[in-house]
Amino acid sequence: MSDLDNANDERQLVVFELSHGNYGVDIGTVREINRMQEITSLPGTPQHILGVINLRGRVVPVVDLRRRFGLTVSDFTPASRIVVVDIGGRDIGVVVDGVDEVLRVPAAALAPPVGVGADAEAAYITNIVKLPDRLIILLDMNAALGEDGALDMQAMPAAA
Amino acid sequence: MELSPDITPDDIEMFLQEADEQLELLDQSIVKLEHESDSDHLLQEIFRAAHTMKGSSAMLGFKEMTGLAHVMEQALDQLRNGQIRVTPELVDALLNGMDGLKDLRGVLSDMDSAIPDVSAAISQLEDVIGGGSGEAGHSGQAPIELGIPSTREPEGGMDLDKLRDEMDKGNSVLSIQLTITSEPVWYGVKGFQVLTALQAMGEVLSSSPTQEEIDAGSAGARFSAALATEMTPDSVAEGVARRVDDVSNIVVVPAFTPTGEATSVAETTGVETTTGSSQTQHSGGRKQAIRIDVERIDAIINTIGELMVDRTRIAQIGRGLEKRYKGDDLIDSLSMTSGHIVKLVDDLHEIALRVRMQPIGTALGSFPRMVRDLARQLDKQVEFSIEGGETEVDRTVVERIKDPLVHLIRNSIDHGIESPADRKAAGKNPVGKLVLRASQEHGSVQIIVEDDGKGIDSERVKKAVVDKGMATQDMVDRLNPNEAIDLIFLPGSSTKEETTEVSGRGVGMDIVRSNIESVNGTVTVDTNVGQQTRFTLTLPLTLATVPSLLVDVCGVLYAIPLVYVIEIAWRRPDEVTDINHAEVIRVRDSIVPLVRLDKAFGAKSTLSKEDNVHIVVVQLGDRWYGLGVDTPIDTQDVVVKPLSGLVSGSKGISGSTVLGDGRVVLVVDVPALVASVGQSSSDSGTSNESDERELALAG
Fold first, then answer.
1. Fewer CB atoms inside 10 Å of the end CB: C or N, chain B?
2. pLDDT higher than 90, residue B549
3. What is the pTM of this model?
4. ipTM
């Protein structure tokens, strides 16, 4: 395991797929990763809100990030997962096309998001991770899901 | 402010708790006194409360409060002795005195604030008792009186200097009362033994009988004393019991809490060495209670709610295992255990829910005072009563309906009940009757607020609505009287031309209705012009679980709170009529708007045009609506969880719940649903029918 000196220079990311793109979130925001389960749809909510699921007795909303970002939407597959993230103390499920790995990357590999990504998602990108074989787009879930006052604004970090 | 030295924050905290209890008691009983002036019991209760306030404030060294409580006590004493009688002026003086005590009490929570001036209250009381207050004055120099638990006041039997010295030493003063059970010839001997035993434990400040009386042979079976000691009441009682035989009913309490006539001790520390005899000290029979943060209770109930879901799950898994491994011993004991757990969880749930229940009379304890003050302010005579005050309701429900109830009651006194002159002229009793009646009937609580005032004139309501441009004359003319009365629930439809201080401050009946609907309740109004007005509130027993009807709409389950449901029916397609793009059906003898849940929730119905439609008939206020569903399934108590953040704005949905099998069910927000449908349907047409619908639905 990494020693303390190293810890500051490294980030741990959960890397997942959305419409064939590689995305990542800081592992600290991820609570758990679940297989797909029945989603109860909610009337009168925006398209990207798929509905709610029962997470061991708690009712948790589920969001389709592909619709949120305006990406191509295909059917769920056996590889699809619901990633439960903690947004300001509230759990939100995020459907992804598959979870690839938990990745440890050196801080040096993080680059600022300049001119990359579609407009809809640009605001939620914190960094681009440049790896030898691919790019990973690092997402700020708070900004992506906490927008439009749909979430408690107090729970948002002041910097967001 | 200045208090006695050595008073710790804990002392103050204890005092505040006791003071709050006594003040609440005073609040409720002083108002009652006006109508039950011959009730000795009530008078004693008030006297005790005032006496306790005096004693415990003296203990703190809170001179101002002691002085005021003393004058109140004097007035009550004169009342008790028949020297003065109950008059409205006396009740006013006592109420003002109590308000003064409350103000003074407030200083203790905020030590930096100035001590309120209560001299007006004191002189008002002194006026009432007519100069009989000479010996004590109100300068805060009230003598400290020890309430010895005997039938007589121990005046003069106490050396006050001695008492102060003992208190300065940090000793507490206890009052001791006991009964000697030996044969009468031994009373003197036993009394002597008890006295000796007490002297061994502290300084005996006074006793009855005294040493001299015992020596003279005039001792009786009852013995009481005041003892300055550093021992606890419990150990003093034990000490006496250990040293002396043939004594019983030993009661030892701190002397400055209620004693003698003041027997309402919340938690007596007395020890009874024999059982079976009833001693007055315990006759109050008050239940022991602790205060718990409501949030903690809610956390417990929520956790148990989740446990309920898992409990069902475990039972299901157990049944599955039973089938698979039939006859396995381990499985048998598993299913027995899980069966037991199911029962325990159910019990736990019920107990937890009852923790939140509160008699409605307690919650509305301030109402009699409010009614009295209002009536006097408006020069009206009102006899107010709460019936069924013991009916228990979830405190969250009570809290949310308290304001609406206050509003209804203010309305009744201000607009409903006429002035005594008007009432006489109308051949009525000049004293108006206002009743709040609570009762529990099948899973819900009904609260009725009824007055015998002038009623609500539907013509005036119509006129007000038209004058304010909320509807046209043509529209209101179509309404029957009941529907017209219902217009009072529209925002801004107050009929009172001038606003008064009491009501009509722009907060209207619409707020009352929406508050009640927010707890899944309903409100209706009946009125007879010139005779009475009655508001009927129907409320759920608790908000923690909601008895609901589960229905299937396009494969998704929804829960409709049963409090709204009148009946379940079905109609053939040809029984559904289109009026101005709005579907209606006939239920019993009325035409009822049909709201198809599939359309309302934007789902694609799996039913074809030819299928019969199942209808859940719901009631909101006086109006009925039909909710079209695919299939009604079952009724079930569901634990409602609010929808959080991202999905909280879901239209027509008030929350969600999880069934035993893990499925998520959405709880239908019936008022929001029918209101929104009403508006959208009236957008599409401008004819009178749809206007009428809009009017009726907008409430």
1. N
2. yes
3. 0.53
4. 0.71
